[in-house]
Amino acid sequence: MDAEDVGGVHVKYLYHCPRQLWLYLRGVRPEHLSGAVQLGEAVHETSYARSSPIDLGAAKLDFIDGRHWVHEVKSSARPTPADQAQGRHYCYRLEKIGIDAKGAILHYPKTRRTHRYPYTPEAADQAQADIAEVIGVAASPISPARLARSACRGCSFTDYCWTE
Q1: Around Cβ 115, how many Cβ atoms within 10 Å?
Q2: Where do the DUF83 domain residues begin and end (predicted)?
Q3: What integer pLDDT is reported at residue 160 of this predicted model?
Q4: First vs last Cα of the chain: how many Å apart?
Q5: DSSP-derived 3-state class of residue 106
Q6: What residues contact 148, with CB distance under 8 A and at least 6 apart?
Q7: pLDDT tens sequence across 34-90
Q8: What does pTM read for this prediction?
């Protein structure tokens, strides 16, 4: 895996759980069995339906407005570091193809809230560090340690980590 192969899902999984990222990179894909993932897909499909997704190869963002703000629709009720990292990653990807992204706006339809995260030079540096870390997890021959079980609530990968 090289830097161009790293997408938003990879960065999101890195922040959520490095073990989840490692399993995902090896083809373990139980998401279709998860009610939480199905809910997220439904929220995505019914929110901001007039907007077109942007395909950047490994990265697929929900939409970008005329002022160059990346918009991402999230099914959770509140922002997480993984959401913020994913938005930052999309800004970085846009910058690499010559689009001056202003930042990410994360939409949370469940609570009718939005959060803005400007894209700064520090955010660009962090996006590069995130990509390097994803590549490091991908190269590891053994999976990262699992998180505490309480952190795994609702994760579609739970059976892969906690089945004895």
Answers
A1: 15
A2: 8-162
A3: 81
A4: 30
A5: strand
A6: none
A7: 454 455 454 445 555 556 778 887 788 889 999 999 999 998 888 999 999 999 999
A8: 0.84
Whether the CA torsion 70, 13, 35, 30 is positive or negative: it is positive
Backbone angles phi, psi at 116, to 5 degrees: -105, 135
In CATH, the number for domain 3-148 is 3.90.320.10
The residue among 53, 54, 116, 47 whose CA lies nearest residue 87 is 116
Neighbours of 128 (CB within 10 A): 13
Q: Look-up: residue for tokens 């997704």?
A: 53
Whether the CA torsion 16, 17, 18, 21 is positive or negative: it is: negative
How many other CB atoms sit within 10 Å of the CB of residue 100?
9
Q: How far apart, in whole angstroms, are the C-alpha atoms of residue 56 and residue 69?
A: 15
Instruction: Give the residues across from 60 on adjacent strands.
Output: 55
To 10 degrees, what angle do helices 18-25 and 121-139 make?
60
Q: In the chain, how long is the greatest CA-to-CA distance?
A: 51
Alpha-carbon Rg for the chain in angstroms: 16
